[in-house]
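Lecture 7 notes: from sequence to structure.

We start with a single chain of 289 residues. Read the sequence below before looking at the structure.
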Amino acid sequence: MKGIYSALLTSFDREGNINEKGIREIVRYNIDKMKVDGLYVGGSTGENFMLSTDEKKEIFRIVKDEAKDKVKLIAQVGSINLKESIELGKFSTELGYDSLSAVTPFYYKFSFDEIKDYYDTIIRECKNKMIIYSIPALTGVNMSIENFKELFKNEDIIGVKFTAPDFYLLERIRKEFSDKLIFSGFDEMLLSALVLGVDGAIGSTFNVNGIRTREIFELVKDNKIKEAREVQHITNDLITDILNNGLYQTIKLILEEFGVEAGECKRPFKEATQEMKKRAKDIFLKYFS
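Now the structure, written as tokens:
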């Protein structure tokens, strides 16, 4: 399960409906061109939290059907509706996903005991492995090393997608749990996370920047930190330009330049303006031509 995983985009038409052809093309591009080790399906990048249960199931089905067993697949099934999480977890497990993942339950101020019960329940009901999705900036849920110790007592919790800038906590988790998988979730902090010993990374920009991501991995493995830093500089220049133009819209527009039918973003995300399209083309020419 180690390695580079694209946080998979979802292609929608202008009415916000799932574009199956586009999703299949995004999957193929990630496997064939970006050479990723796996796909993280149903996360923030996939605009998951604006979708119905049936739409989420359809995306899980399409991705599995297209990817087959060529790469590892992780299904993000987290929701503040526990019944939905279980339904999605069972569905993706039956499809053959290699692991589940679930964002910490958000919006309400759940206690840690409630969060732990949420994970234990999904695992018990779905009978699959689990990767915790920790993203405090969006959920408001900050977990301590003691919390991770409690969660990791469940042997079916095999790791964490760590999308937080607290690298002291990251280092403590790595030191304490050498047998657990740690995936870096911030593309712009990949080099720093690799130096601390993470097992892999899950990122939205890997949909277009997977080759440079792999280069950073390999350079760190060969202890060529200076060279890896230079590639991270280029990557972060790219990320800055993408963020300044609209994250998901711009990644999709770059994929369109590569001939991939990446489609639209789902409202309330705004439709890409002509100016955004022009800037996206400039970004494409600057970093990928």
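Residues 225-245 form the longest helix (21 residues). Keep this in mind for problem set 3.
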